[in-house]
Write a structure and sequence with these properties.
- The strands form four sheets. Strands 3-2-1-4-5-8-13 form a seven-stranded parallel β-sheet, with helices on both faces.
- The protein starts with a strand and ends with a helix.
- The protein is built from twelve helices and 16 strands.
- Helix 1 packs parallel to helix 7, helix 8 crosses helix 12 and helix 9 packs across helix 10.
- It is globular, with a radius of gyration of 20 Å.
- It is of the alpha/beta class.
- Helix content is about 35%, strand content about 25%.
- It has one domain: 3-Layer(aba) Sandwich (Rossmann fold).
- It comes from Photobacterium profundum (strain SS9).
């Protein structure tokens, strides 16, 4: 039986990872912050409550662990609080015990044109996204010391929790209708990720197709390709209310960002929203010679909407 250490098990992705790992017969140790009370209660899941001062104790706990799982959400403005320990310390932990390190993330460097950003010169085609250069180099160095590193990039999260996903920032609900603000052209397609699908597919390939990976791989999980109009249609079905789509005024966002770290993070993705992203070619592998399984967009949004209420 394989053994996993999962950080952030009280977060949505952490909970789904624990569930998917246990379904594939892994023993799972979940790290939670002191005082957290919404951790999942599952068989084969051992919860360990730690603080940032318990690093030495963490080293004592992972002697039988095979793999470390970490999720970095797009709107996480304080990574240390999210993971308890800084990512650098977690990488060092993997190096010390020669563990496999798996990171899911939608934190990217956006590679824009170097030409002037005048209106008549502005690049209109999708822009390239990539893992942050500094993180890529650090993980590559870790792979050279014996750590097997797998990074899975994903798109915007399909969810409505205001501080955990961008979609939650865009939807306003009234008694009779929903207001959906569009940061881009209403018909422009973006990549959206339903986290239960990502967790299930990731755990499946790590459990059954591990031999297909190199010592350091960065892959992209495509999820659902959908526009704001598609999201609005699904929201109308989920909520039973009409959905009105309005443009998002970035000048207002810039003003709010002066006082909100969350909105400052959102502004960094402005060009990605306005022009669309160009995904890397190294996409998520097939599972047992079949396509990746996806919950249909309508059902995924309905389940997310039910969780909101």
């Amino acid at each position: 039986m394989k053994n996993a250490l999962v950080f952030g098990v009280c977060g949505e992705m952490g909970k789904h990872l624990c569930q998917a790992l246990i379904e594939q017969n892994w023993e799972v140790m979940g790290v939670i912050k002191e005082g957290e009370i919404d951790a999942p209660l599952l068989g084969n899941l051992t919860l360990v409550e730690l603080t940032c001062a318990d690093l030495d104790f963490l080293y004592q706990l992972v002697e039988d662990v095979d793999t470390i799982f970490i999720h970095q959400p797009e709107t996480d403005t304080n990574q240390r609080n999210n993971l308890i320990f800084p990512l650098e310390q977690i990488i060092q932990l993997a190096e010390f015990f020669n563990l496999q390190l798996i990171i899911t993330t939608n934190k990217y460097d956006i590679k824009q044109t170097q030409l002037p950003s005048f209106a008549f010169w502005r690049q209109k085609k999708p822009i390239k996204i990539a893992l942050p250069h500094k993180l890529h180099n650090r993980l590559y160095h870790a792979s050279q010391t014996g750590v097997r590193v797998l990074v899975i990039g994903c798109g915007h999260t399909l969810g409505f929790t205001h501080r955990k996903c961008y979609l939650g920032m865009l939807v306003k609900e009234t008694e009779h209708q929903l207001l959906l603000q569009s940061p881009s052209e209403k018909a422009m397609k973006h990549q959206w990720t339903y986290l239960p699908d990502l967790a299930k597919n990731l755990v499946h390939i790590v459990t059954h197709q591990q031999h297909e990976f190199n010592t350091f791989d960065t892959l992209y999980y495509s999820g659902h390709t959908a526009s704001i109009n598609d999201i609005a249609r699904c929201l109308a079905l989920s909520s039973g209310k009409p959905v009105i789509v309005t443009p998002l005024h970035w000048t207002i966002m810039e003003f709010i960002a002066l006082f909100s770290p969350l909105f400052r993070v959102f502004l960094k993705a402005r060009t990605l929203w306005q022009q669309g992203g160009m995904c890397p070619h190294n996409t998520f592998p097939r599972i047992n010679n079949s396509e990746i399984t996806h919950t249909p967009l309508e059902l995924a949004l309905q389940k997310c909407w039910e969780q909101r209420h």
